[in-house]
């Protein structure tokens, strides 16, 4: 998979951001919440007036932009990973139940999924956050609950085709319970496709999280988030372009990286979904 | 078949509202088209305020944004002119036969826009309505030493007070006169959504969150306004407000952020105008632990570096405040200086109070500046960082500006950033803010109450000044708030608009003119 250049680039970016988030306290040159009004709106080091102690400059309150981006990656990644895990667990469980048992259970779950899909994710999150208030946990819950449908649909399809296979009948004939058939025999066979979906939806959640923070509905300040930094920096776009530009670039790069990586994974592990190989 | 029917049903249910919504819009569109075609040069002035309003009647909604709108729909007995003198408005003249009696003579022949006569009965009804406990008017405390209002004939109003009331004229500038029959018929709730007055403009449309459209009252008793239409729009995002002014989408904006000032001043299509200002303060819940301890409140004052905030965030457009009294207010004690920035002293005070390890503090802040203030979120974050130095852990709660006042009244805040515009008359704001019966939501002090009532009732200016000096000193020491600063309120307007920042802080569009670009 890593032979493909785009996948390799995606892999490198993803790993880079992950490491950055994990080792934030060691990598960041400054405390991201430390306010030094005397140092406000310092430009990045290559511009006139910039200094090497603030590589990407400072924001309107004299906080180091680079450190805030590094710490901001923690929030973005934590929220997106946690909610991806939640939604994949919910989605896979419901998908397997619905595919395996069929009938009424299947149609109820499928209709539930259709209803869920009818609500735009951002709209739903805004409504929930407006009621429950802003906090990291609420964000995770909202994204986790509203993203399960994709997983459920894919899992259901995979289970439908797998349950007619010989190995399932073989397992059944030696007396395996439904549960162990599902978990031990079917799940491993669809795992690759799930990883692919998870990676791709991860990128979507990073964007949603940034949008909510941008709208002031994400993690409350002074905790740094990329969307929040973008929103705060917007007011200063004429006085200090770097305050909004770098968080924006970070979002773009990360999402691009994760997407490329996800595409690569798909090409390598799920030939059914691959478009590039057919060409 | 059944399935298909259900799908069809769901589909129609979803589509019908969408279709009708479109239709409404089309209709509105065509109405507007017709209107603009029939009258070619319709002069319309759009004013961008910082916050949406919940109602349009200032007698029921205590919001500055509502005040700006009410001031153009209604008239009061008395007005304040540009040099802050009280001048006749609905009342032609007035006299005080004794200290507890005021006699006002009304102008004759003024009508409300629904045809009702604006006579002494309407004035009596309006003032009684504010004082009626059932109405729960936020302005009631301004009239609480008024005993009764009499209307002996159709053009005379007699106001009897229980004690001498030095600030009565000031209070009356905020008492808008409403038409009795219309209010009775509509009820207060409905009236506040589409009020009727005698002012230079008539309410045409109120779409919450979007705009308030007023059209000129061509029969206004002072003459027809020079513009045909006045639109108030809430644009809470400061940068959007500035951009809308630059593109000409709006004609006048309130609260320009300091970092945009230079840019706007260099734009040849735009002019700016400033008035004395708006104060931002950090309200503290002095009724609950740990802020009930005066040492803790003082410590907070010592720990906030206001100078640095006004210099670096507000770029010198604000001055630190010494207590809650403006330096232009009558009774300001010049010997009182703002709390100095002294972290050591703050720590000591906290230690004495038993909070050496600090505590957690919730701070409610609007996401953007309200009224004339700007950069509130940045100020809040800076305060949070500075309080951390004395171990107070601040968690920011970003409030929705529209519901902020309700939450404030319901005591949902532990500390909060709030505003008040600069006033010369001390009773006008100190009484509202610090009297236990007026807004005793977060602070009660019987000594202050006594002095406030005495100040209100004292006619002798020297003695009155001494009383307010004392109030100033007491409030400074008791520190019911974290005292922050007084920011100059900058208004921006297009150069084809004749506008001036209002001296009393209330926009009066009767005087606004606009030539088409």
Largest sheet of chain A: none
| Helix coverage percent of chain B | 25-40%
Q: Tally the helices of chain B: what do you get?
A: 17
Would you give the CATH topology of chain A?
MetI-like fold
Number of strands of chain B: 19
Rg from Cα of chain A = 22 Å
Give the N-terminus to C-terminus distance of chain B in angstroms.
Answer: 63 Å
Report the sheet-strand fraction of chain A: under 5%
Tell me the name of the CATH homologous superfamily of chain A.
MetI-like
Oligomer: heterodimer
Shape of chain B: globular
Going by helix content, strand content and strand pairing, the class of chain B is: alpha+beta
How big is the Rg of chain B? 25 Å
Give the helix/strand class of chain A: mainly alpha
For the record, the count of structural domains of chain A works out to: 1
Q: Major sheet of chain B: size, sense and barrel closure?
A: 11 strands, mixed
Mean pLDDT of chain A: 84
Q: What does the model show?
A:
The complex is a heterodimer of chains A (279) and B (517). With 279 residues, chain A is mainly alpha-helical. Chain A contains eleven helices and no strands. In chain A, helix 1 packs across helix 11, helix 3 (65-101) runs parallel beside helix 6 and helix 9 (178-214) packs antiparallel against helix 11 (241-269). Chain B has helices at 2-38, 64-73, 120-131, 168-172, 180-186, 188-193, 238-247, 258-265, 294-303, 306-312, 343-352, 376-388, 401-409, 426-434, 436-439, 446-457, 461-478, and strands at 44-49, 78-80, 86-88, 91-98, 101-106, 146-153, 156-161, 201-207, 211-216, 229-234, 252-253, 270-284, 318-320, 360-365, 393-398, 415-421, 481-494, 497-498, 513-514. In chain B, the strands form four sheets. In chain B, strands 1, 8, 9, 10, 11, 12, 13, 14, 15, 16 and 17 form an eleven-stranded mixed β-sheet that branches. The radius of gyration of chain B is 25 Å and the shape is globular. At the A-B interface, loops of A face helix 8, helix 10, helix 12 and strand 15 of B.
């Amino acid at each position: 998979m890593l032979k493909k250049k785009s996948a390799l680039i995606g892999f490198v970016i993803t790993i880079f951001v992950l490491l950055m988030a994990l080792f934030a306290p060691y990598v960041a040159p400054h405390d991201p919440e430390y306010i030094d009004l005397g140092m406000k709106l310092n430009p990045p080091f290559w511009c006139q007036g910039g200094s090497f102690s603030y590589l990407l400059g400072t924001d309107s309150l004299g906080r180091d932009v680079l450190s805030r981006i590094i710490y901001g990656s923690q929030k973005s990644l934590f929220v997106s990973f946690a909610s991806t895990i939640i939604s994949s667990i919910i989605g896979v469980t419901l998908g397997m139940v619905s595919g395996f048992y069929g009938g009424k259970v299947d149609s109820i779950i499928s209709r539930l999924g259709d209803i869920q899909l009818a609500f735009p994710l951002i709209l739903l999150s805004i409504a929930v956050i407006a009621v429950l208030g802003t906090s990291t946990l609420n964000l995770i819950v909202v994204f986790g609950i509203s993203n399960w449908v994709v997983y459920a649909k894919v899992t259901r399809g995979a289970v439908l085709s797998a349950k007619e296979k010989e190995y399932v009948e073989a397992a059944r004939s030696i007396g395996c319970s439904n549960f162990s058939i599902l978990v031990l025999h079917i799940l491993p066979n669809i795992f690759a496709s799930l990883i692919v979906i998870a990676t791709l939806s991860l990128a979507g959640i990073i964007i949603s999280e940034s949008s909510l923070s941008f709208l002031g509905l994400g993690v409350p300040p002074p905790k740094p988030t990329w969307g929040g930094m973008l929103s705060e920096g917007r007011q200063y776009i004429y006085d200090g372009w770097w305050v909004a530009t770098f968080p924006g670039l970070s979002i773009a790069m990360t999402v691009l990286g994760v997407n490329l990586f996800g595409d690569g994974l798909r090409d390598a592990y799920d030939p059914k979904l691959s478009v590039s190989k057919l060409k | 078949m059944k399935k298909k029917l259900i799908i069809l049903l769901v589909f129609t249910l979803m589509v019908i509202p969408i279709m009708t919504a479109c239709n409404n819009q089309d209709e509105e569109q065509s109405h507007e088209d017709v209107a603009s075609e029939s009258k070619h040069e319709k002069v319309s002035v759009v004013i961008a305020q910082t916050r949406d309003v919940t109602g349009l009647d200032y007698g029921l909604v205590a919001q500055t944004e509502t005040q700006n709108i009410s001031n153009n729909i209604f008239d009061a007995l008395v007005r304040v002119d540009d040099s802050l003198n009280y001048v006749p408005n609905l009342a032609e003249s007035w006299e005080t036969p004794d200290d507890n009696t005021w006699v006002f003579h009304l102008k004759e022949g003024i009508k409300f826009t629904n045809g009702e006569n604006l006579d002494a009965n309407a004035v009596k009804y309006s003032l009684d309505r504010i004082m009626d406990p059932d109405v729960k008017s936020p302005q009631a405390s301004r009239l609480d030493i008024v005993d009764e209002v009499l209307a002996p004939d159709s053009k005379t109003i007699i106001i009897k007070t229980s004690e001498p009331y030095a600030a009565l004229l000031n209070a009356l500038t905020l008492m808008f006169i409403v038409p009795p029959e219309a209010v009775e018929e509509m009820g207060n709730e409905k009236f506040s959504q589409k009020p009727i007055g005698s002012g230079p403009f008539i309410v045409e449309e109120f779409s919450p969150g979007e705009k308030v459209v007023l059209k000129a009252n061509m029969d206004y008793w002072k003459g027809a306004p020079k513009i045909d239409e006045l639109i108030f729009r809430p644009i809470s995002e400061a940068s959007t407000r500035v951009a809308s002014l630059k593109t000409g989408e709006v004609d006048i904006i309130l609260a320009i952020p300091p970092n945009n000032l230079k840019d706007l001043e260099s734009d040849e299509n735009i002019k700016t105008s400033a008035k004395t200002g708006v104060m931002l303060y950090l309200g503290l819940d002095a009724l609950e632990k740990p802020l009930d301890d005066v040492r803790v409140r003082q410590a907070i004052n010592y720990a906030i570096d206001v100078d640095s905030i006004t210099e670096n965030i507000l770029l010198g457009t604000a001055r630190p405040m010494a207590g809650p009294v403006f330096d232009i207010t009558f009774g300001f004690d010049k010997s009182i200086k703002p709390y100095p920035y002294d972290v050591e002293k703050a720590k000591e005070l906290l230690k004495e109070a038993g909070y050496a390890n600090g505590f957690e503090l919730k701070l409610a802040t609007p996401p953007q500046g309200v009224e004339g203030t700007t950069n509130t979120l940045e100020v809040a974050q800076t305060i949070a960082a500075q309080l951390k130095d004395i171990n107070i852990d601040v968690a920011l709660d970003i409030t929705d500006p529209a519901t902020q006042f309700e939450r404030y009244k319901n005591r949902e805040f532990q500390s909060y950033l709030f505003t008040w515009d600069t006033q010369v008359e001390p009773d006008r704001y100190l009484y509202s803010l610090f009297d236990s019966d007026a807004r005793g939501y977060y602070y009660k002090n019987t000594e202050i109450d006594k002095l406030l009532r005495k100040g209100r009732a004292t006619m002798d200016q020297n003695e009155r000044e001494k009383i307010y000096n004392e109030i100033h000193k007491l409030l400074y020491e008791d520190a019911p708030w974290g005292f922050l600063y007084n920011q100059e309120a900058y208004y921006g307007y297009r150069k084809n608009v004749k506008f001036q920042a209002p001296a009393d802080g209330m926009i009066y569009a009767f005087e606004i003119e606009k030539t088409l670009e």
